[in-house]
Amino acid sequence: MNLLQTHRADTGVCLRPDGITMVRVMRAWRQPAKVRCIEERPIRSGLLRPSCTEVNVENVDELARDLAAAVGSARTRTVALSLPDGCVSMAILPFESLPVGERERETLVRWRFQHDRRCALTDEQIAYRIYPAPARTPHPAGSADGGTVTAYVMAIAVKPSILRQYHMVCEQAGLLPVSIGFSSLQAFDLCRMSVAPASEHFWALRMSDRLTFVACRGGVPVFLRGTRVKEHDDVRAELVSSLQCFDDDCPHSDGPSGTDPAILYVMREQVDEQKDQPEDRALWTPAGHPRWQVEVRNGWPEGRQLWPPDTTMSIGRWCALASTEVV
What we know:
The chain is of the alpha/beta class. It folds into 3 domains: 130 residues, Nucleotidyltransferase, domain 5 (2-Layer Sandwich), CATH 3.30.420.40; 70 residues; 103 residues, Nucleotidyltransferase, domain 5 (2-Layer Sandwich). Helices cover 23% and strands 35% of the residues. Strands 1-9-5-2-3-4 form a 6-stranded mixed β-sheet. It is globular, with a radius of gyration of 20 Å. The two termini are 13 Å apart.
């Protein structure tokens, strides 16, 4: 899901607090896209500090120089940007019905975003995507509505002043962003295509100090939780907490039918980062649900629809690749 989209770019750039990743793809008529080159460049600590309320870029000139060096010489100067999750507010909102008119629908989504997130939106830009709800979905726990959910809306809100900082960086680097998205949502869009729409499965993406957890039912995202994690925090405990929050919010989640466990895909920033990750293929049983088992899988999902079939790439490369909309 992108906030800005004019057309697809062949060069994707992922900006992270610790570095910049550039992926350039080559497209041919009726042929699968191919990765032409990948460049990664570290940046100074503290140069980029993602925030949804404060200044993100400490020195625009310095980050622009780093970005220009990472992109290098290219025939086209248009790029697709993947920005850190920390500079945007995200939510998944259940609706019993939605207005047909676009203006009325956006007004309702904005109001619900403020209500559910308990925050005040002033000049923030809103972008959202609508997913039809799985059949006969009840309202989440604590909701005042008593009907049936017909749609889930994945919504994001970001301040124009924050976006302007990244536009300034691109402008000074001689680049034109034709698409702007956010890391975990772009990675989610890319990877969900490789997973069969099971009754329940989960995604957890850790990037820098952010952990984003998304729960899906029937291929539809129904719950989202973002938390801050420090370097030595227990990621396993945070993931168990996210599963419990999902169950508290959606109390009818009795787990998948049959004997197959639900899958929790844990995607991390570095492919060799193992010290604080849960054990691969471990089976968890969330508290209060002895029949609900969750199988943990470290890394990106493997599937015939996933492109390219390299599940060992770092998360920065995946997000840069996802921004080019290769699938």
